Automatic annotation (TrEMBL):
GO BP terms: folic acid catabolic process
Native species: Sphingobium quisquiliarum P25
Lineage: Bacteria, Pseudomonadati, Pseudomonadota, Alphaproteobacteria, Sphingomonadales
Peptidase M20 dimerisation domain: residues covered: 211-304
One GO MF term: dipeptidase activity
GO CC aspect terms: cytoplasm
Protein name, entry field: Amidohydrolase
Keywords of this entry: Hydrolase, Signal
Length: 484
């Protein structure tokens, strides 16, 4: 997933006028919510660092999910676990009566291949994964925002429903797609989310649609020296496919992203491998185009199998829409972010940041952590399953500075900072922004109506939601090779 704070490709903005709407929260309400979050920061930190240590990959986040569920239950939320065919997915609800439904998204999966100590130098630690996208902070801060908003609702007799979605496997597993496909978000008046980053902003951007899956080749095993003529190498099929797809890169739209890893290349050089697997992602700003490109990738796989005397099957793992901005909600979130005093860093934290930055390539652009100007429609070359949510529910997100300025996501530097007080301070900023925004929306029917009208205008009158995953069940074992 990722944020508009990252490098941008192009502008795909839709002209949508944002009317003058209800003003911000009363100052007394605002201060009460911020004070609640400040008091509960130790709980947020405890949860965030526990999930950082668990470092559980997609659909295997058993401890992480259970911890967040336990925290929400203790705060008075009703929790339904194992929703939409995903054992680690959950919905936590606090309902006081008829009124708006405000949703908050929470993530908690880690990335395979990035185990790293919370130190400013490369130091791998035992394990298979690390929070290189900061989802440990994402989940903990979203939960804290929900708890603070619930306390405010109780104090003021606010009618409506606050709902937190525990969404697993964002990194490739498309967890939120299954929530949307099951209709579990269709009655939400507004959905809020955030993401760790190296800066602060609440601009509303776009992302790339994405289809991913595994190509499994099957051949014939044989002794690679004594009887190579008896074998048919599944790895040859993978390599032939990869070569053909790499030649495709010259002949696809320039916004396209195609990347892969060989997840199974055989077990011993002297055995002709009878199975091999390669895992592909295809991305493009347009859902139709990404589907067309993936069909070409499938044809390359079929050709590779034909040429190597093997067979191939495709197992789709993920499929996500691009991200649809909602400026009506975005401006509300941006104003609430701008109203905050951003956290400062201690001398020790600043030394950590400086040492991390010394590991970046020369010429890396580093901001100062301030809140950038509001923009709309800029395209990030990453993808997120929030995209499907944004096409079916008015949705707005933000980023908070949880890493050293200049830090690339999915890096050991991001893992390191996500396990420190630097990451926690950014998560607190996110929790405050989301709670303030949620509370304001509960009292602003005009904003919610305008946000819905904007969604309908942007997606078009004839829009009908059809998941890029079709009716496929969640690939609950898609990270299995990362464990083995």
């Amino acid at each position: 997933m990722k944020s508009v704070a990252w490098s941008l490709l192009s502008l795909l903005a839709v002209s949508v006028s944002v009317p003058a709407l209800a003003g911000p929260l009363a100052e007394s309400d605002r201060m009460a919510i911020l004070a609640d979050i400040d008091r509960d920061t130790p709980s947020l930190e405890k949860n965030a660092l526990a999930i950082w240590n668990y470092a559980e990959v997609g659909f295997q986040e058993t401890k992480s999910s259970a911890l967040l569920q336990k925290t929400l239950k203790a705060a008075g939320f009703a929790v339904k676990a194992g929703v939409a065919g995903m054992p680690t997915a959950f919905i936590a609800s606090f309902k006081t009566g008829d009124g708006p439904v405000i949703g908050i998204l929470a993530e908690f999966d880690a990335l395979p291949g990035l185990p790293q100590a919370a130190e400013p130098e490369r130091k791998p630690i035992p394990g298979i994964a690390g929070h290189g996208c900061g989802h440990n902070l994402f989940g903990a801060a979203s939960v804290e925002a929900a708890i603070a908003t619930k306390k405010w609702m109780v104090a003021h007799g606010i009618k409506g429903e606050l709902r937190l979605y525990g969404a697993p496997a964002e990194e490739g597993g498309s967890g939120k797609v299954f929530l949307v496909r099951e209709g579990l978000t269709k009655d939400v008046s507004a959905m809020l989310h955030w993401h760790p980053a190296d800066g602060n902003n609440a601009s509303q951007g776009r992302a790339l649609a994405n289809i991913s899956g595994k190509f499994r080749f099957h051949g014939i095993a044989a002794h690679a020296a004594a009887a190579p003529d008896r074998g048919r190498s599944a790895l040859d099929g993978v390599e032939a496919m990869d070569n053909m797809v790499n030649m495709m890169r010259e002949h696809v739209p320039q916004e396209t992203r195609i990347h892969y890893v060989i997840t199974d290349g055989g077990k011993a050089p002297n055995v002709v491998p009878d199975t091999a697997e390669v895992y592909y992602y295809v991305r493009h700003p347009d859902q139709k185009v990404v589907s067309e490109i993936m069909e070409r990738v499938k044809k390359a796989a079929e050709g590779a199998a034909l040429g190597t005397g093997t067979t191939v099957e495709f197992d789709q793992v993920g499929g996500t829409f691009d991200l649809l901005p909602n400026d009506t909600l975005g401006h509300v979130m941006y104003d609430n972010l701008k109203s905050l005093t951003l956290p400062s860093h201690t001398a020790e934290e600043q030394a950590f940041i400086s040492k991390i930055q010394s590991t970046f390539p020369k010429g890396t652009r580093m901001g100062d952590g301030s809140i950038g100007p509001y923009t709309s429609g800029q395209v990030s070359p990453a993808s997120t399953d929030v995209g499907d949510v944004s096409y079916t529910t008015p949705t707005a997100g933000m980023v908070a500075a949880t890493w050293a300025p200049g830090t690339p996501p999915h890096s050991w530097q991001a893992v390191a900072a996500s396990g420190t007080s630097i990451g926690v301070k950014g998560a607190v900023t996110a929790a405050k922004t989301i709670a303030l925004t949620a509370a304001q929306l509960f009292q602003s029917p005009d904003i919610l109506a305008a946000a819905k009208a904007e969604l309908e205008k942007r997606r078009g009158a004839d829009f009908v939601y059809r998941s890029l995953l079709g009716d496929k069940a969640p690939s609950l074992d898609y990270r299995k090779s990362a464990k083995d």
